UniProtKB/TrEMBL annotation:
This is Phosphocarrier protein HPr. It comes from Paractinoplanes atraurantiacus. GO terms for cellular component: cytoplasm; membrane. It holds the Pfam family PEP-utilizers_C. One of its GO terms (biological process) is phosphoenolpyruvate-dependent sugar phosphotransferase system. InterPro entries: DhaM_N, HPr-like, HPr-like_sf, PEP-util_enz_mobile_dom, PEP-utilizing_PTS_enzyme, PEP_util_C, PEP_util_CS, Phosphohistidine_dom_sf.
Amino acid sequence: MTGLVVVCHSRPLARAAVALATEMTRGRPLQVEIAAGLDEDTYGTDAVAIMEAVVAADDGDGVVVLMDLGSAVLSAETALELLDPDVRDRVVLCPGPLVEGLVAAAVAAASGAGRSEVAAEALAGLAGKESHLGVTEQDQITEGTQGGPSAKVRVTDPHGLHARPAARVVGEARSFDARVELRNATTGSGWVPASSLSKVATLGVLQGHEVEVRASGAQAQEAVARVAAVAGSGSGLSTGRALSTGASQDLGSAGENGAGGGPQGRAGAVAGAASPGVAIGPAARLRAVPIDVPDVPSLGVEPERQRLDRALDQTRRELTRISDPIFDAHLLLLDDLDPEARTLIGQAHPAPQAWQQAVAAIAADFDALPDPYLRGRAADVRAVGDQVLRFLVGAPAPTLAGDGVLIAADLTPAEAATLDPTRIAGVLLAAGSPTSHAAILTRTRGIPAVVGAGPQVLDIRDGTLIALDGGSGEIAVAPADAVLDAFRARAAEQRARSQAARSRAIEPAVTTTGVPIAVGANVGSVEEARAAAANGADLAGLVRTEFLFQDRTAAPDVDEQLAVYRAIAAAFDGRRVTLRTLDAGSDKPVPFLPAPPEANPFLGVRGLRLSLAHPTVFAAQLQAIALVAREAPISVMFPMVTTVGELRRARMMLDEALARTGSGRPADLRVGMMVEVPAAALRAADFVPYADFFSVGTNDLTQYTLAAERGNAALMSLSTGLDPSVAQLIDLLCRAAGDRVPVAVCGEVAADEQAVPRLLASGVRQLSVAPALVPLVKQAVRAT
Ligand code: PEP
Ligand code: MG
């Protein structure tokens, strides 16, 4: 028999509702449980109690859960996560009304209906009342009080119009040439502009509330119809979608690589395998460090507004990069906060103070709401507010609160670069793909990571035990003992393999046919250079110098750069060091090189293009490189070269730097370029006269060849591994290079054991990989 569970803030109310419903079943048996109130007199709901009630109500035919309002819904959703996956798949959270729905559900369940039918009956529980009172689900569009069209609609989304549904309403309202307004007819609120997320969210609209929409302007009619539809369903879809079953709680939504079955208690979810290794530990998060806002007077209205514009642009870029609906809501909040802050700047407040006040005012509006879930949205306002404030005052990024498996939406390259492997067992990201910069940096630091696991991972509570395998992408949340044992066994096997590889790390890597292959390391700090040398790297095949430039308000001067390049060269102790010039822009912004907003930043002013656009910064870097090249075997490498003209200009600037720093050209200096743009691979022969070496950046080459942004989780299957089209470009490049120009690969596929034989067959003779992977890649070469 289908069981019923009543989730309600008040225990007496739940009991009375059950008594009423039981009365209607006329003595037929009914399996109904209550999970209501924290005790007899205290209002509240408890996920564990709900979970236990579901287990008690389930005899194998499944359970329909009816909830009252607000946090009851959230607690019920959390309870689902606590259930065994097979039980969870039999549970339906039903948005039907508590009393009428329960009565209808009880009658249906007692007469033997299955759980879908019982839930449908409950959902239609208001039909009798509505038809009696002459109310339809979505009232006809009528002439509004302002003379324009208007409509009333009942909200069916279980969370009412909270951040995400509200963001969809706002997005729709803004897409029409009309002024659209909303009000909560159930509470009798005033009208608010539908284009403002904070105003819409503060209407306190809960499931079952009636919202009134009105509009004026050219597209008023269409706007009212569309906004009412979206507000009503929360998604613009039919109400049939409102029923949620346990199956929808699974982790992962990463396109083809997305999660399979529920992860609870077993290794059922698979996402982007970003950095090999097994990690087991409690879930931990980044916590913001307090932001220190200096008490200095305004520099004037215009400069302060420009400062705000820059910080907003940077924040928008970050939010857009993550591209998850929750961050779409944050983007809309920025639009609400912006005018408030701008007004305060006009009243002689400096930008940071004006921004803080605007954030405090709007967050306070949310704090004042009666519904706890909507009240919780104040946290979104403060989170996005802090993000902007950090850019305004140049404050550091959040730091890790505890040790364990770090869970985050995504990490900026700067955040990923500072992860401490002694504290972080592993990384689990909602967004990103294995070739995103955050993923690369976890690999560089030897931290197992799974990325693109979908926004559900953000709901995992701090402290929950997580096991993940960054080599296969498997994740287990709160794993059962057997699953945990399997992860531990795998970890032991990987440790043994890596120890065997490490014991031969300093030996050269030679193929079975006797071809020597240089295996270098990609490094992004002096510390990583030391780790790479200790792991037997034959050279530094790629030094990502941008680590010196990120997260600061001014470029490092020549002396500072020289000191770092010298320290890296010292770590490699006579082995070659390939210094790549600044590769900033798009997802690696540098605050002191403000870039105008770009519609497609990955196709914009980045890499060498950005350096050439800022000749003073570029010249200083080349000068530091020229100086260290007089002391150690250095290769200079230019990133993202597209045309021969760019390479020649860069070489000319290097020649000028060499002339400024002494006489003659250091004998051991080599100058080369990254091949990351298909145009460069296709025209390789034209570059040959100007390059001492080519190094293929497969991360970008793949992104540009397959038109698949490297950080986009949904496109992970396109951007991971060695695609045949990229392999063909590498073939072309090697043929054009012939014996004159050696070809290296420093993109992530260089560490892909499956890809190594193919790369070597094309003629690649140098591989450069994350420091921790050097010994394993040497083994892969030896097996080729
Ligand atoms: C690449 O694009 O493959 C590369 C090595 O450069 P980065 O990942 O730093 O863009
Ligand atoms: Mg690149």
